[in-house]
Specification:
Blueprint (H helix, E strand, L loop, with lengths): L3 H25 L5 H31 L8
Length: about 70
């Protein structure tokens, strides 16, 4: 009986403990760091500005060369 307890600990408790440990670590690191959030915000703003510029250029091209979309 004295040998069963260590065997049960090694085969059942230890693997569960390791799994729960790494699941907890994964959940803690799941979010974005403040630096990542700042960078994401900057990229989002840059993308919005680029989208506005592209729309403006397309409007200008629509006026100056109405068939420009057919060439692409």
């Amino acid at each position: 009986m004295g040998e069963i307890i260590p065997i049960l600990f090694i085969t059942v408790c230890l693997p569960l403990w390791i799994i729960f440990h790494y699941v907890t670590k994964w959940k803690m690191s799941k979010g974005l760091s403040p630096e990542d959030e700042k960078m994401l915000s900057e990229v989002w703003e840059s993308t919005s500005r680029m989208e506005e510029r592209i729309n403006t250029l397309e409007r200008i091209l629509d006026i100056e060369s109405p068939n420009w979309r057919k060439h692409s």
